[in-house]
Amino acid sequence: MSGYKVFAVAGASGKVGKAILDELLRVQPELELEVRIITRKEGGNAAKDTDSLEKRGAKVYAVNYDERETIVHALEGVDVLISCFGATGFGLQLLLVKVAAIAQVKLYVNSHWGAPMDEYRYGLTHMSIKDEPIKLAQEVFHLPWTLFRVGIFPEFCIPFPVTELNLNSRKVVIYGDGQTPNSWTTIPDVARFAVYVLTHLSPSQLQNREFNIEGDRKTFNEVVQLYIAKHPGEFQVTYKPVNVLEEMVKKSEGKDFFHALMIEYATGRVAHDPTKLDNKEFPGWNPKQVVDTL
Ligand SMILES: NC(=O)c1ccc[n+]([C@@H]2O[C@H](COP(=O)([O-])OP(=O)(O)OC[C@H]3O[C@@H](n4cnc5c(N)ncnc54)[C@H](OP(=O)(O)O)[C@@H]3O)[C@@H](O)[C@H]2O)c1
Q: Does ligand 1 come within 6 angstroms of the Cβ of 44?
C-alpha cells in the first residue's frame, strides 16, 4: 500500500478528471481516503456542482489561481495532487507544482494522460508545455512526480468529428495506410489503473515514474474491420497518406496541430513499446478492448 490517504484532483470535471474522481470515490470507503476537488471559484465546473459532489463524499475547494493562498489552503495535508487539467489549464500546472511543494504534497501527478511520444515534432513542439511541470518539480522543487502515458481514448477520439473516423457515419478517412498499431485505453480503465497504483504501490515505486499502459493495441484498419463485423453493411474507407498530411502541416507553418498529431497516429508514435508496458503493476486490470466501445 502506498499509505497515501488524502487525494486532491484539479480539473475533476473534465473527461479524465471526472473518471479519476469517480474511481477515488468508489474506493474511498474501503481505503478510507479523503478526496478533495480543486476547482475554479469563478466559472469552475465542479464549483457549480459542489452540493452533489459533497453528497458523494468529496470536499470541494473553490480556488482562485491568481491568489496563491487559496490553493495552498486547498493543498494543506494533501498526499497526492492529481492534475487533470485540459489544454487551457496546462500553463497553470507550473503554479500547481510550486504550491504543492510549499504545501509539502508528497506526490504530484502531471496531466499527461496521452501518447507515449518522447519528442514533439512538426507542429507539436508547443506540447512540451505538458512536460515543463515535471522539470520544475524534479529540478527545482524536488517534488516527487508521476505521470501516465495511456495511448488514445477510443470512446472519445473515434467519434470526435475532426478525426474523420466517426465509424457510425459509415464513411471514414484513415490517416496513413492504416496498418500501424496504436495503443488504446478507455478513460475509465485509465482511472482504475491510476487509482490502483497510487493507492497500492509503495511511494518508492511511484515517485518520479512514468507509467506506460495500454488497454488494447490495434491498427486503424483493424478498428474499422471490427466495427464492420459488429455492425455489418456498406462502409466506405478512404486513405490520406502521410505525405499529404506532412504537406498540410508544412503549408500551415507548423500551426496545423491536428494534422501534426495525426502524422504521429499514422506513423506509430502513439504506440507503446510492448516490452516496456507497466500493465502488470495492476494484476487484476482487465481493460476493455477497442471493440467493446464500438
Ligand atoms: N489520450 C487521449 O486520447 C486524450 C484525449 C483527450 C485529452 N487527453 C489528455 O487528458 C488530459 C485532460 O484533458 P481533458 O480533455 O480531460 O480536460 P478538459 O475536459 O478540457 O478539462 C479538465 C478540467 O480542467 C479544468 N480547467 C480547464 N481549463 C482551465 C483553466 N484555464 N484554468 C484552470 N482550470 C481549467 C476544469 O476544471 P474546473 O472547471 O472544475 O476548474 C476542467 O473541467 C490532458 O492532458 C489531455 O491532453 C488525452
A: yes
